[in-house]
Design a protein that fits this description.
This protein is an all-alpha fold. The protein contains 16 helices and no strands.
């Protein structure tokens, strides 16, 4: 990787198929199972329409990721892109924001999963589930990205199987009019329920399901082939992942909305989807969907989340913007093991701190959406302003559309999320100033 100024350290072993599975796993094919009730309540039942809006916004963001992955084929995601496409200071803040996203995702996933399993098996303490999940994922990630990829393939097969079972039972339930269900496009086009501000507020919740497609870019230095080809493969994987997972989200939420069209009837918003599963197929389907959600979030999703954040920490440490120890690579497994262990430790601390699930989700969305805004600006700055590109459609029009959509969703975030998010930004600013005063190399002006 002479062009990027880095020595080749990570093992190149991943294919396009591995990246697609990685992205799909991170977003979780059955992600709406866990938040369906909240999205339904916020959108007045127009859940599939909300996911269609979310998919559209994320697709424009995916296009910006793909453009930058091709010209900057290095690990680090939006941090590396903004650093090279704008400047090192904006890059640091992009990385700082995406850290807020990624570093809080594992605790959120573990808490949701542990809570679900503890409800089913109250004899086992919730903390026991938390520790088990962290240990399993940390060990797998240290052993190597190939082990992670193989584990992903097994888990995604299980998730897809559960989803297909739900869809089969669900379509049958609608066809025989269980609970008065019938096929209709009302969940997409109900005029009496349509309210753009409410839909965008709901989208700010549903976007949590899409977060993770960008994690594919953190694996650029572990993709088979030479540097330029690897960047193109990453870009292709990012673009393909959104419509694949988005279609699954829309289909399952449409079927669920048909079975129970009255979003005000749910006894508990956190368990709304499981109520629907019980109506459609009985207790066995409710139990299957509950366990599948717990394992998908607690093992599959958290596994790739930990892999992604450890590589962002590795990339920032390699650039001297975080302690150098985080850039250490395991001599045998060729993985950033110190960063992986740090993520595990931080996850345990956050989980033991008693932070609420909804607060975690809000902060995650603030970090991700804010970083996405910087990403779109990076495309415009690098290609149009710096490189004088005449491809205005790909390098100006599409990023501006993405910027407007993500900006609208960002404005729909709750006050608490934005307040705590700006506290995080202030901490990052203070850290950067201290590092510059100390003369740290990574905070001195450099050309990329």
């Amino acid at each position: 990787m002479q062009h990027s100024g880095y020595q080749e350290e990570l093992k190149r072993s991943l294919t396009l198929g591995d990246l697609l599975i990685y992205g799909v796993i991170f977003m979780v094919p059955i992600a709406p199972f866990g938040i369906f009730g909240y999205v339904a309540s916020s959108s007045k039942g127009l859940v599939p329409l909300v996911y269609l809006i979310g998919m559209t916004g994320m697709l424009f963001t995916a296009l910006s990721y793909a453009r930058l992955a091709e010209v900057f084929p290095v690990a680090g995601s939006v941090y590396s892109y903004a650093q090279r496409g704008i400047n090192e200071h904006i890059g640091f803040f992009a990385g700082w924001l995406i850290l807020l996203d990624y570093i809080l995702i594992p605790p959120l996933l573990y808490l949701v999963s542990a809570t679900a399993l503890h409800t089913m098996l109250p004899i086992i303490p919730k903390v026991a589930w938390l520790i088990v999940f962290v240990l399993i994922n940390t060990v797998i990630n240290i052993l190597g990205i190939e082990i992670t990829a193989k584990t992903n393939k097994v888990i995604v097969a299980v998730e897809i199987s559960v989803l297909l079972i739900f869809l089969l039972v669900g379509f049958t339930a609608v066809n025989v009019h269980i609970n008065g269900a019938h096929f209709s496009l009302k969940p997409f086009i109900a005029k009496e329920e349509f309210d753009l501000s409410l839909l965008m507020n709901a989208a700010s919740i549903a976007v949590l399901s899409f977060l993770g497609f960008d994690s594919i870019s953190t694996l650029t230095e572990e993709v088979k082939g030479e540097r330029t080809a690897a960047g193109k493969i990453v870009g292709k994987a990012i673009i393909l992942t959104i419509p694949i997972i988005g279609s699954l989200f829309i289909l399952q939420t449409w079927v669920a909305s048909l079975i129970v069209p009255d979003y005000t009837s749910f006894q508990d918003l956190s368990g709304a989807f499981y109520e629907i599963a019980q109506i459609a197929g009985g207790n066995w389907l409710r139990g299957l969907c509950s366990v599948a959600t717990a394992l998908a979030w607690g093992i599959a999703n958290a596994l790739v989340a930990q892999a992604a954040i450890s590589r962002i920490l590795f990339s920032m440490a390699r650039d001297r913007k975080l302690p150098a120890i985080l850039a250490l690579i395991h001599p045998k497994y060729k993985t950033p093991y110190v960063s992986t262990l740090l993520v595990a430790f931080i996850t345990l601390v956050i989980m033991m701190g008693g932070i609420r699930i909804d607060d975690l989700a809000s902060l995650i969305n603030f970090g991700a959406l804010s970083a996405f805004l910087i990403l779109h600006v990076t495309v415009i700055n690098h290609f149009i302003i710096r490189k004088k590109s005449r491809d205005y459609f790909n390098h100006l029009f599409l990023p501006i559309v993405g910027l407007l959509i993500i900006g609208y969703v960002w404005m729909s975030l709750g006050f608490l999320a934005r307040e705590l998010g700006f506290v995080w930004i202030s901490i990052g600013l203070f850290y950067m100033i201290i590092m510059k005063l100390l003369g740290k190399k990574g905070f001195k002006s450099e050309e990329y």
